[in-house]
Structures are given as structure tokens and as C-alpha cells.
UniProtKB/TrEMBL annotation:
<feature type="transmembrane region" description="Helical">
    <location>
        <begin position="93"/>
        <end position="116"/>
    </location>
</feature>
<feature type="transmembrane region" description="Helical">
    <location>
        <begin position="59"/>
        <end position="81"/>
    </location>
</feature>
<dbReference type="GO" id="GO:0015209">
    <property type="term" value="F:cytosine transmembrane transporter activity"/>
</dbReference>
<feature type="transmembrane region" description="Helical">
    <location>
        <begin position="195"/>
        <end position="219"/>
    </location>
</feature>
<dbReference type="Pfam" id="PF02133">
    <property type="entry name" value="Transp_cyt_pur"/>
</dbReference>
<protein>
    <submittedName>
        <fullName>Cytosine permease</fullName>
    </submittedName>
</protein>
<feature type="transmembrane region" description="Helical">
    <location>
        <begin position="364"/>
        <end position="383"/>
    </location>
</feature>
<keyword id="KW-0812">Transmembrane</keyword>
<dbReference type="InterPro" id="IPR001248">
    <property type="entry name" value="Pur-cyt_permease"/>
</dbReference>
<feature type="transmembrane region" description="Helical">
    <location>
        <begin position="339"/>
        <end position="358"/>
    </location>
</feature>
<feature type="transmembrane region" description="Helical">
    <location>
        <begin position="279"/>
        <end position="301"/>
    </location>
</feature>
<dbReference type="InterPro" id="IPR030191">
    <property type="entry name" value="CodB"/>
</dbReference>
<keyword id="KW-0472">Membrane</keyword>
<comment type="similarity">
    <text>Belongs to the purine-cytosine permease (2.A.39) family.</text>
</comment>
<feature type="transmembrane region" description="Helical">
    <location>
        <begin position="164"/>
        <end position="183"/>
    </location>
</feature>
<feature type="transmembrane region" description="Helical">
    <location>
        <begin position="231"/>
        <end position="253"/>
    </location>
</feature>
<feature type="transmembrane region" description="Helical">
    <location>
        <begin position="17"/>
        <end position="38"/>
    </location>
</feature>
Length: 404
């Protein structure tokens, strides 16, 4: 989120950047709330909740593919941040270590931890996440206590110009995968009120706050840009560089173990492997993510976010349309469909293509959602209705069939 916040500020004034962050996260929270309500109503995880719109086979592959691609890619980005930060810490003590070597080293450490040290990460999370929040809060106090910094931020003019709509898409891309998959956790909520509270209070303050911190620190340090070196420079400039960078190493370490584990779970489902292959799939995901860092994945961070912002929201759009509009949000009427419901993939791809092809028209992310929802509704009588009716039809017990 720090990198996303710094990147958004590349082409907008501080006020415009803050507005795009708020709108982007509002879209994410809306999708998250609806997807979470669906999973909570039905008491099922995202992959099962999507089986009405995509079919059981379709949702299994579609959601698993989203999980695998997103988490492997995020693993790569986080590994670079961790590796560069660790190299900067060593450099402070006069120990040179190339960033690439440090990144590969930490990528492998993260892979191994995801396979054998998951309990250690729970302990590190308790320390690193609150510590990172405190460091960012301290950094904001330091920046805004300096009158010159406050004036610099208020009068900031970007060297290049971007559009508000494109920046909204970037903000959406930074969190949209988490929004769509949130039902895996919120399905345990007892009421929609609990779901909405957890979505709004649990995401907006911390999410927008971290984007905001990334933007402020980038302007303050003069390192506006969507790259890992910007984050290292930002946290190294707040008065206690070693402490800030050490906390960043711990935070990215814990986050990336989760990324590797989730990506491994996605690969497990995609390959239809047995559960005892979870460790192999997790290790494979981590190695692939580390390989992406060597291939220079961070050079395409903005493109990655734009693709996520274009193609993932339509996935949520058709699932939401199927449950809330077609089945009127009634759990008793919703049914899981066997095989593949081609209406879902077709509508999603169409929405994603429209969002990606017309970046300057209104808000591309919303355009993609609207297109996918409308197309799903139009194609429902042709591609989905018979399958839905077959799923809703009562089955005849084997004994009765034999008697006849």
C-alpha cells in the first residue's frame, strides 16, 4: 500500500491523490461488503459462493487462478521490498549486499517459512504489524510538525500528469483481490451488520491511511514513484532508519508467508493435487514469486495493478448479480450449478476487456463491473436458467426409481 500511495502521487496533486485513494477503497469496500454478505448468508467460502455464477468446476478454476496469480505476483513485489530493505540495513553498517542477492535470499527464507514455520509467523505478526503502524504514525507526526514539509506537501505539483480515473483504478488494484476473497473469513459473521462493520471499519481507516502515508512520505522525501527503492528511502528518512527498515522486513516477511501459503492453496486446487501436496505447491508458488523478482516484476507494478483493477471486479460483479438480483438475496433460492456456467466467464472477460480498453472513459473499474453485470443478466435466460432450474429440482431417491 505504501508503494501504491507513492505511485498514485506520481501524476496527481496531493489533494487529487487523496481523493482517488478514498474513491478506490470505497469501491473495494462496496464489493467486499456484498461478497461478504453473500458468504455470510450462505455460510460458504468464496469459491463455493461463486459456483452459482460460474458453476462448480468454473468457480473452482476461476477463483483458484485468481488466488494463485495474485498471490504469486504479490509475493514477488513483497520479496523485493524485503530484500532491498535488508540490503539497506546492512549498508548502514558498512556491509555491502546487492539488492538482487538479498531479494533471492529472503524469497527463499519466506518459502521455507511458509512450509515449516507458519507458527513463527503468527508470533512475528503480533509484533511487526502494530510496530509498522506506530512507525508510520510517528513518521506522519515528524513530517507535519515541520512547517516546510507541510507547505511542500500542500503545494506539491507532479512532474508528470495522470488522470483521476486512472489513479482510482490503481487504488482499486491494490486491494481488490482481498475484497473479492474476503468471504472466506466473513462467512463466520453472524449477521450482515457484523459483515458491514468489519468491512468498513476493518479496511478503510488502515487501508486509506497507509496509502496516505505512502503519498506523504514520498513527497516529503522527494522519491515519488512506484518502485521498491522509494519505500526503502521513505522509511530510512524518518529519524531511525535501521528500526524502520527492520520493521518493514518483518512486516513483508509475515505478509509474504501468507501470500505463499494462499498461492499454494490455489495451485493445489488448480492441479487437483491431493492435500498432502500442499507443502510442494506452497514451495512452488514461493519459488515462482522469487523468480519473478529476478525477471524484474517490479518494473510492471502499475500494469499489474491495472490488470487486477480491470478483470477482478467483474468476477465479483457477476457473483453479486446472480445472488442479489436474480435470486433476490434469498439463501433458500440460491443454488450451486454443476460443471461450468459459461455465462460467468464470458461476462467477466467482456467486462475486463472494456475496463482495460477504455481507461479514459469515466471510471474503468466501474465500467467493467457494469458491463459484466448487464451482460450476465442478458445471457442468463440463454446460458444459465436451465442449469439453475436443474440444480433447484428435487432429486428422486434411488429406492423410488428402482420401484418404478
Amino acid at each position: 500500500a505504501l508503494m501504491v500511495g507513492a505511485g498514485i502521487t506520481m501524476g496527481l496533486s496531493f489533494g487529487q491523490a487523496a481523493l482517488s485513494m478514498c474513491i478506490g477503497y470505497a469501491i473495494c469496500v462496496l464489493l467486499m461488503s456484498l461478497m461478504s454478505c453473500l458468504s455470510s448468508d450462505l455460510g460458504i467460502p468464496t469459491v463455493v459462493a461463486a459456483s452459482g455464477a460460474f458453476g462448480k468446476t468454473g468457480s473452482s478454476y476461476m477463483v483458484s487462478l485468481v488466488i494463485a496469480i495474485c498471490n504469486i505476483s504479490w509475493f514477488g513485489f513483497q520479496a523485493v521490498v524485503c530484500g532491498e530493505s535488508f540490503a539497506a540495513i546492512l549498508n548502514t553498517f558498512g556491509i555491502p549486499l546487492p539488492g538482487v542477492v538479498s531479494t533471492i535470499l529472503w524469497g527463499l527464507i519466506m518459502c521455507i517459512t511458509a512450509v515449516v514455520g507458519i507458527n513463527l509467523i503468527k508470533i512475528l505478526n503480533v509484533v511487526s504489524v502494530p510496530a509498522l503502524v506506530l512507525i508510520l504514525a510517528y513518521a506522519m507526526i515528524v513530517v507535519f510538525q515541520d512547517p516546510e514539509s507541510s507547505v511542500k506537501i500542500a503545494n506539491y505539483a507532479p512532474a508528470t500528469q495522470s488522470t483521476l480515473m486512472a489513479s482510482i483504478g490503481t487504488a482499486v488494484g491494490g486491494f481488490v483481490a482481498g475484497s473479492v476473497l474476503a468471504g472466506d473469513v466473513t462467512r463466520y459473521c453472524k449477521s450482515r451488520r457484523d459483515v458491514l462493520l468489519s468491512s468498513v471499519i476493518g479496511v478503510i481507516p488502515m487501508g486509506v491511511g497507509t496509502l496516505f502515508a505512502g503519498s506523504v512520505l514520498a513527497i516529503h522525501c522527494g522519491v515519488v514513484g512506484m518502485d521498491t527503492q522509494s519505500i526503502v528511502t521513505m522509511l530510512a528518512s524518518i529519524g531511525s532508519p535501521v528500526l524502520g527498515l527492520l520493521i518493514l522486513v518483518l512486516a513483508t516477511w509475515t505478509t509474504n508467508v501468507t501470500n505463499a501459503y494462499s498461492a499454494g492453496f490455489g495451485l493445489l486446487n488448480l492441479t487437483r493435487a491431493k492435500d498432502n501436496k500442499q507443502a510442494v505447491c506452497t514451495l512452488t508458488a514461493g519459488v515462482l514469486g522469487t523468480l519473478l523478482t529476478v525477471l524484474g516484476i517490479t518494473n510492471y507494478f502499475n500494469d499489474f495493478l491495472n490488470i487486477l483493477a480491470a478483470f477482478i471486479p467483474p468476477v465479483a460483479g457477476v457473483v453479486i448479480m446472480d445472488y442479489f438480483v436474480i435470486h433476490k438475496a434469498r439463501p433458500s433460492e440460491w443454488r450451486s450449478i454443476e460443471g461450468i456456467n459459461w455465462n460467468g466467464p464470458i461476462s467477466c472477460i467482456a467486462g475486463g476487456v472494456v475496463a482495460l480498453a477504455f481507461p479514459g472513459v469515466l471510471v474503468p473499474t466501474l465500467n467493467g463491473i457494469v458491463v459484466s453485470c448487464v451482460l450476465y443478466l442478458i445471457l442468463y435466460p440463454v446460458l444459465s436458467k436451465k442449469k439453475a432450474q436443474a440444480a433447484a429440482a428435487p432429486t428422486v431417491p434411488a429406492e423410488e426409481t428402482a420401484e418404478e
